UniProtKB/TrEMBL annotation, chain A:
Domain ABC transporter per the UniProt entry, residue ranges: 2-226
Alphabetical list of SUPFAM superfamilies matching this protein: P-loop containing nucleoside triphosphate hydrolases
Organism: marine sediment metagenome
Keyword DNA repair: no
Official protein name in the record: ABC transporter domain-containing protein
GO cellular component labels: plasma membrane
GO MF terms, alphabetically ordered: ATP binding; ATP hydrolysis activity; transmembrane transporter activity
Keywords from the named record: ATP-binding, Nucleotide-binding
From TrEMBL, chain B:
InterPro entries: AAA+_ATPase, ABC_transporter-like_ATP-bd, ABC_transporter-like_CS, P-loop_NTPase, PhnK
Keywords: ATP-binding, Nucleotide-binding
Organism: marine sediment metagenome
GO function terms (MF aspect): ATP binding; ATP hydrolysis activity
Single Gene Ontology BP annotation: organic phosphonate catabolic process
Domain ABC transporter: start-end pairs: 5-250
Alphabetized Pfam families for the sequence: ABC_tran
Protein name: ABC transporter domain-containing protein
SMART domains linked to this entry: AAA
UniProtKB/TrEMBL annotation, chain C:
A molecular-function term among this protein's GO annotations: 4 iron, 4 sulfur cluster binding
InterPro entries per record: PhnJ
Protein name: Carbon-phosphorus lyase complex subunit PhnJ
GO annotation, biological process: organic phosphonate catabolic process
């Protein structure tokens, strides 16, 4: 479902003497439907970078990244927009939403943009928020005012609202209490069971061991300057 | 899939000075594109060329019309172009007073576009106006008030209702949240996003506010000195800018 | 005879105005610009109408002038005298006998014939002016037939007053094409704009001439659910008893006494001569005696 072939990436900082910083070199990785792969490596080794490259958030200089039938590296913007709506989900560490929009709407949005009936989308959003223990009195409020842990759970609910065939998870269990952490792991397991290909970054070793089928160490593809 | 708007090598000169040059892009149905750049970068010139307010010196702006498919709006007759701007196109000005009739009631402002396309039933026009005022969160009992007594945010929302009442497919927006308080901006952004989604609108938004494009636009073009220097998915351009100027632009703003 | 050229204006000027009139007749409702001359009367006193009358009058014509329907008001009398003096034409107060009628704010009650010309004095010829101040823009709207704005004005009327409150200078569409201001006639007169006579409109200050040829379709703008309705005071003329004419209201005293009478003095007088009597006609006759 997700295939990364010989990808390389560097940043050129034009405003700092055109310094060129290579961050990824010749990485390859493949994730099958129903499989969960953990990206591992020291902080700064490029785990998030690789994940952002797969999502199309960072440009990839060379190589090929296939998600389903689409090559992220050469795709037109509209193809990427479509892919992100229907195929590739992403739970980031940060919640970025329009202020003032209610939590329910935030969670239901991925369903709404794919043409779901509003009532159904709301039902699904409510079920997810309930499951992730977001107090009902907060549902009508904007999540921008929530605590870090609450924002993270809203983010997860949003990421799992639509059944994406491929999922990218950036630290989904960080800053969660044991109960919610267990719920999130359960949700990931369910996604796997329905056939989603998942790539995750977990600093939580126990979680990683429990949910991931294998590990992928990005350090091997980190250019020398880091060592 | 046919693009809704196909822009080819648009150029506009002001004497020897470049307004904009060599701008080409395709916009697909449902897409929202942001155009950012500093003052004088040519983004408003470009928008006005696209919307038919300025005659470009070169290039084509092809729009997928309902009846005849792709038509070059630069060379079509003025009546046809004006008809487009009353029906399938909409233009939201930065200053609401440029887009509203200040001496006409809110209902009259919303109804004008309907009457311009031959709506002749007062009751229907008024019902539609009330519906649209509701959609932009203006209460129905303000329908007979003139926009002069509205706040800036309300005026801007009224302008949006007036523009969208005929169900356009392409909306041009020039700094739609400029000059509004931050909290009012957020409300407007939310409204615009909802309308774009519900109506399947395509939009081109000119702004210098990177936070606005991050929340509203799927795609982004960065302009400098009349040229497009970088374009791509909005989050990609903002998070991994390639051009020196874009890097400067992104690093110059407070974290958004 | 006087030292003036016939009908005051020089022949070149009259030719220029006639060309504008012919163009106006060829494009019903279209405002033709013309080089309005200084006339020996202030703007607002009918300088446009006077120039049009001067251009169409011939020595054989019989001229009538009405102001708000009356032949005997200052404005009407001075314009009538003006042409008596400068053109030496015959004048009349009888609508049926006149070949050229200059009017301010009314159309005579008696239907006009094909051999009659009605000349209107027009203060503001542009019907879109109220909402769109730019002349460039209004001209473009006319040329592109963008008349939505005209209905905005009617919409505003209904939203504020519950009905279309515009009672005079009520906009019309001429022959399915140009929207036209019929000058400040009461909307009661609008149906009469479709007539056998030639109608010419002159706006002196604004330098515009426009025209409605005989038997031209003239439709008053309206909404499906608020159709156009010509209105008048719900009363009969207290002098001649007419129920089909436009009425003026006259306050008689400070005790609430009032009476209604035809604004068209010739119409009223003709009826009274024919023996029609209104409710207060007798009382007035006693007063006079």
């Amino acid at each position: 479902m997700i295939t990364v072939e010989n990808v390389s990436k560097s940043f050129t900082l034009h405003n700092q003497g055109a310094a060129e910083i290579p961050v990824m070199h010749d990485a390859s990785l493949s994730v099958a439907p129903g499989e969960c792969v953990a990206l591992v490596g020291a902080s700064g080794a490029g785990k998030s970078t690789l994940m952002r490259m797969i999502y199309g958030n960072y440009l990839t200089q060379s190589g090929k990244i296939m998600v389903g039938d689409l090559d992220i590296v050469s795709a037109a913007p509209r193809e990427l927009i479509h892919l992100r709506r229907t195929t590739l989900g992403y739970v980031s560490q940060f919640l970025r939403v329009v202020p003032r929009v209610s939590t329910l709407d935030v969670v239901a949005e991925p369903l709404m943009v794919t043409g779901s009936n509003r009532d159904l989308a709301m039902e699904r959003a409510k079920a997810l928020l309930l499951r992730l223990n977001i107090p009902q009195r907060l549902w009508r409020l904007s999540p921008t005012t929530f605590s870090g842990g609450e924002q993270q759970r809203v983010n997860i609910a949003r990421g799992f609202a639509y059944p994406y065939p491929a999922l990218l998870l950036d630290e989904p269990t960080a800053s969660l209490d044991p109960t919610n952490r267990a719920t999130v792991l359960e949700m990931i397991a369910e996604a796997k069971a329905r056939g989603a290909a998942i790539i995750g970054i977990f600093h939580d070793h126990a979680a990683r061991d429990k949910i991931c089928d294998r590990e992928f160490d990005v350090t091997a593809f980190t250019p020398d300057k880091l060592s | 899939m046919t693009p809704l708007l196909q822009v080819e090598n648009i150029a506009k000169m002001y004497g020897a000075r470049i307004g904009c040059a060599n701008v080409s892009f395709d916009l697909y149905p449902g897409e929202v594109m942001g155009i950012v750049g500093e003052s004088g970068s040519g983004k408003s010139t470009l928008l006005n060329c696209l919307a038919g307010h300025l005659q470009p010196d070169a290039g084509a702006v092809c729009f997928d019309t309902r009846t005849e498919g792709l038509r070059n709006t630069v060379t079509m007759s003025e009546p046809e172009r004006r008809m487009l701007s009353r029906t399938d196109w909409a233009f939201v000005h930065q200053h609401a007073r440029d887009g509203l009739r200040m001496n006409v009631s809110a209902g009259g402002n919303v109804g004008e576009r309907l009457m311009a396309v031959n709506a002749r039933h007062y009751g229907d026009i008024r019902a539609k106006a009330i519906d649209w005022l509701g959609r932009v969160e203006i209460s129905a009992d303000r329908i007979d008030d003139r926009p002069t007594v509205f706040s800036g945010g309300m005026q801007q929302r009224l302008q949006i209702a007036r523009n969208l009442v005929t169900g356009p497919r392409l909306v041009f927006m020039d700094e739609p949240t400029g000059g509004l308080d931050v909290s009012v901006q957020a409300r407007l952004l939310d409204l615009l996003r909802g309308l774009v989604r519900e109506m399947g609108l395509s939009a081109i938004i000119v702004t210098h506010d990177l936070a606005v494009v991050r929340l509203l636009a799927d795609r982004l073009m960065v302009m400098k000195d009349g040229h497009v220097i970088e374009s791509g998915l909005t989050d990609q351009v903002l998070d991994d800018p390639q051009h020196a100027y874009t890097q400067l632009l992104v690093s110059s703003v407070l974290q958004v | 005879m006087t030292d003036y050229n016939f009908a005051y204006l020089d022949e070149q000027t009259k030719r220029m105005i006639r060309r504008a009139i012919l163009k106006g007749l060829a494009i019903p409702g279209y405002q033709v610009p013309f080089a309005s001359r200084e006339m020996p009367m202030p703007y607002g006193w009918g300088t446009g109408g006077v120039q049009v009358s001067a251009a169409v009058l011939t020595p054989e014509d019989r001229f009538k002038v009405i102001d708000q329907g009356a032949d005997d008001t200052t404005n009407a009398v001075s314009i009538r005298r003006f042409f008596e003096k400068t053109a030496g034409v015959a004048v009349t107060e009888a609508t049926a006998e006149a070949s050229v009628i200059q009017t301010r704010h009314r159309i005579p009650e008696l239907p006009l014939r094909e051999d009659q010309i009605l000349v209107y004095q027009v203060p503001i010829p542009e019907p879109l002016r109220f909402l769109e101040p730019s002349e460039v823009e209004t001209r473009k709207m006319h040329s592109l037939e963008e008349y939505g704005l005209m209905h905005v004005k009617l919409y505003e009327d209904i939203s504020q007053h519950g009905t279309i409150a515009t009672a005079y200078a009520y906009p019309v569409k001429v022959e399915g094409r140009y929207v036209m201001d019929p000058s400040p006639i009461p909307k009661f007169d609008n149906p009469k704009l479709e007539m056998a006579g030639v109608q010419l409109f002159g706006a002196g200050r604004e330098q515009r001439i426009y025209a409605v040829p005989p038997y031209t379709q003239v439709v008053s703008l309206d909404f499906d659910d608020y159709p156009f309705a010509p209105t008048k005071a719900d009363h009969a003329c207290d002098l001649c008893g007419a129920t089909d004419s436009y009425l003026d209201e006259l306050i008689m005293d400070d005790a609430g006494g009032r009476m209604f009478m035809c604004s068209d003095t010739d119409y009223c007088g003709t009826r009274r001569v024919a023996g029609h009597v209104g409710a207060q006609a007798a009382a007035l006759a006693e007063d006079a005696a």
